[in-house]
Specification:
- This protein is an all-alpha fold.
- The protein has 6 helices and no strands.
- The protein has one domain.
- The two termini are 24 Å apart.
Length: 151
Amino acid sequence: MQVYNVSQYLPPLVSGFAAWGLLSLRLAWGTALIQHGWLKVKHPLDWMDIEARKHSGFPGYLQAIAAFTIFLGGIAMMVGLFTPIAASTLAGMMAVALLLHLMNGLPFIKQIPDAPGDSYEASLVYLAIALLFLLVGAGNLSLDALLFYPH
Protein backbone atom coordinates (compact mmCIF):
# COMPACT_ATOMS: atom_id res chain seq x y z
CA MET A 1 0.00 0.00 0.00
CA GLN A 2 1.48 3.30 -1.06
CA VAL A 3 1.17 6.37 1.15
CA TYR A 4 0.19 9.38 -0.94
CA ASN A 5 -0.37 11.86 1.83
CA VAL A 6 0.40 11.68 5.54
CA SER A 7 -2.70 13.77 6.31
CA GLN A 8 -4.95 10.82 5.41
CA TYR A 9 -3.82 9.20 8.68
CA LEU A 10 -4.26 12.35 10.79
CA PRO A 11 -7.43 13.86 12.27
CA PRO A 12 -9.18 16.55 10.21
CA LEU A 13 -7.47 19.91 10.53
CA VAL A 14 -9.17 22.14 13.12
CA SER A 15 -9.33 25.83 12.21
CA GLY A 16 -10.95 29.07 13.34
CA PHE A 17 -11.54 29.84 17.03
CA ALA A 18 -11.14 26.16 17.91
CA ALA A 19 -7.57 26.25 16.55
CA TRP A 20 -6.80 29.22 18.80
CA GLY A 21 -8.17 27.23 21.74
CA LEU A 22 -5.93 24.28 20.84
CA LEU A 23 -2.96 26.62 20.52
CA SER A 24 -3.57 28.12 23.96
CA LEU A 25 -3.87 24.66 25.52
CA ARG A 26 -0.74 23.46 23.69
CA LEU A 27 1.25 26.44 24.96
CA ALA A 28 0.07 26.12 28.57
CA TRP A 29 0.39 22.32 28.74
CA GLY A 30 3.67 22.29 26.84
CA THR A 31 5.14 24.84 29.25
CA ALA A 32 4.04 22.73 32.23
CA LEU A 33 5.50 19.57 30.68
CA ILE A 34 8.81 21.30 29.95
CA GLN A 35 9.00 22.53 33.55
CA HIS A 36 8.17 19.08 34.96
CA GLY A 37 10.51 17.41 32.50
CA TRP A 38 13.42 19.79 33.13
CA LEU A 39 13.43 18.92 36.82
CA LYS A 40 13.64 15.26 35.84
CA VAL A 41 16.20 15.70 33.03
CA LYS A 42 18.62 17.26 35.53
CA HIS A 43 18.73 13.85 37.31
CA PRO A 44 17.55 11.49 34.55
CA LEU A 45 18.65 8.19 36.08
CA ASP A 46 17.24 8.66 39.59
CA TRP A 47 14.63 11.44 39.61
CA MET A 48 11.92 9.09 40.90
CA ASP A 49 14.14 8.04 43.79
CA ILE A 50 14.89 11.68 44.65
CA GLU A 51 11.20 12.71 44.56
CA ALA A 52 10.10 9.74 46.68
CA ARG A 53 13.13 9.97 49.00
CA LYS A 54 13.49 6.19 48.62
CA HIS A 55 14.32 3.67 45.92
CA SER A 56 11.46 3.60 43.42
CA GLY A 57 12.23 0.19 41.96
CA PHE A 58 12.38 1.60 38.43
CA PRO A 59 15.65 1.11 36.53
CA GLY A 60 17.59 4.24 35.68
CA TYR A 61 17.13 3.83 31.92
CA LEU A 62 13.32 3.83 32.31
CA GLN A 63 13.51 6.95 34.45
CA ALA A 64 15.67 8.61 31.76
CA ILE A 65 13.23 7.65 29.01
CA ALA A 66 10.38 9.12 31.06
CA ALA A 67 12.29 12.33 31.81
CA PHE A 68 13.18 13.00 28.18
CA THR A 69 9.73 11.96 26.94
CA ILE A 70 8.08 14.55 29.18
CA PHE A 71 10.60 17.30 28.38
CA LEU A 72 10.77 16.75 24.61
CA GLY A 73 7.05 16.00 24.44
CA GLY A 74 6.38 19.39 25.98
CA ILE A 75 8.45 21.09 23.28
CA ALA A 76 6.72 19.11 20.54
CA MET A 77 3.28 19.98 21.92
CA MET A 78 4.08 23.69 22.18
CA VAL A 79 4.98 23.98 18.50
CA GLY A 80 2.53 21.31 17.35
CA LEU A 81 5.12 19.06 15.73
CA PHE A 82 4.54 15.31 15.39
CA THR A 83 1.52 15.79 17.64
CA PRO A 84 0.09 12.25 17.31
CA ILE A 85 3.43 10.71 18.29
CA ALA A 86 4.05 13.17 21.12
CA ALA A 87 0.48 12.84 22.43
CA SER A 88 0.54 9.04 22.35
CA THR A 89 3.86 8.81 24.22
CA LEU A 90 2.71 11.40 26.75
CA ALA A 91 -0.60 9.53 27.18
CA GLY A 92 1.39 6.39 27.94
CA MET A 93 3.53 8.25 30.46
CA MET A 94 0.51 9.76 32.18
CA ALA A 95 -1.30 6.42 32.25
CA VAL A 96 1.68 4.88 34.06
CA ALA A 97 1.83 7.85 36.46
CA LEU A 98 -1.90 7.57 37.12
CA LEU A 99 -1.59 3.83 37.74
CA LEU A 100 1.30 4.34 40.16
CA HIS A 101 -0.66 7.00 42.05
CA LEU A 102 -3.74 4.79 42.25
CA MET A 103 -1.70 1.76 43.38
CA ASN A 104 -0.25 3.90 46.18
CA GLY A 105 -3.75 4.82 47.32
CA LEU A 106 -3.39 8.54 46.70
CA PRO A 107 -6.57 10.65 46.68
CA PHE A 108 -7.96 12.40 43.61
CA ILE A 109 -7.50 15.79 45.27
CA LYS A 110 -5.85 16.44 48.62
CA GLN A 111 -8.44 17.29 51.28
CA ILE A 112 -6.21 20.00 52.76
CA PRO A 113 -4.43 22.04 50.04
CA ASP A 114 -1.14 22.49 51.92
CA ALA A 115 -1.07 18.95 53.31
CA PRO A 116 2.04 16.93 52.52
CA GLY A 117 1.78 14.23 49.90
CA ASP A 118 0.46 13.96 46.41
CA SER A 119 -2.76 13.29 44.52
CA TYR A 120 -3.57 11.81 41.12
CA GLU A 121 -5.45 14.86 39.82
CA ALA A 122 -2.61 16.14 37.58
CA SER A 123 -1.89 12.71 36.10
CA LEU A 124 -5.55 12.24 35.18
CA VAL A 125 -5.93 15.73 33.69
CA TYR A 126 -2.67 15.39 31.72
CA LEU A 127 -3.81 12.00 30.41
CA ALA A 128 -7.09 13.56 29.25
CA ILE A 129 -5.22 16.40 27.50
CA ALA A 130 -2.91 13.93 25.77
CA LEU A 131 -5.91 11.92 24.53
CA LEU A 132 -7.56 15.12 23.29
CA PHE A 133 -4.54 15.98 21.14
CA LEU A 134 -4.20 12.39 19.96
CA LEU A 135 -7.82 12.38 18.74
CA VAL A 136 -8.20 16.01 17.58
CA GLY A 137 -4.68 16.97 16.48
CA ALA A 138 -2.81 20.23 16.95
CA GLY A 139 -4.99 22.46 14.76
CA ASN A 140 -4.03 24.66 11.84
CA LEU A 141 -1.82 26.91 14.00
CA SER A 142 0.90 24.27 14.22
CA LEU A 143 3.94 22.94 12.44
CA ASP A 144 2.00 19.76 11.71
CA ALA A 145 -0.44 21.82 9.62
CA LEU A 146 2.42 23.36 7.64
CA LEU A 147 4.27 20.11 7.07
CA PHE A 148 1.68 17.37 6.76
CA TYR A 149 -1.57 18.83 5.46
CA PRO A 150 -2.03 19.81 1.81
CA HIS A 151 -2.37 23.52 1.15
